Amino acid sequence: QVQLVESGGGLVQAGGSLRLSCAASGGSSYAMGWFRQAPGKEREFVARITRRGINTSYVDSVKGRFTISRDDAKNTVSLQMNSLLPEDTAVYYCAAYISIWSSQPNYWGQGTQVTVSS
Hints:
- The structure is a single chain.
- This protein is an all-beta fold and 118 residues long.
- The protein has no helices and 11 strands.
C-alpha cells in the first residue's frame, strides 16, 4: 500500500508561482503524476513522470508553465508551477502508477488546494 502526502498548496496572485511536493511511502512507483479538480469539473490529468525522470508528459494547458520532477532516492515528486492563471485554481492530487502496465493511477493523495487570484 502506497501512501501519498501532498504539500505546498496555497493562495497566490495570477502570474505567481507555487511548488507542490508529494512524499510517497510504502513502496516505489513506476510513474508518479499530478491531477487536479476544479469546482464543478471532473478531475483532469496535469503531468506525469516515469522512474528516473526518463519520460514526462503534460496536459497542453500547462506546457511551458509547469515542470514535474522526482527524486527516486527520497521517493518524492514535485510540481513547479509558474505563471499561474486563475483557471489553475483547483485541488491538486498526487498520484502513483505502480507498474508500466498501469493505465490509471493506483494510489491517490488527499489533495492540496491551489487558489490563484486575478
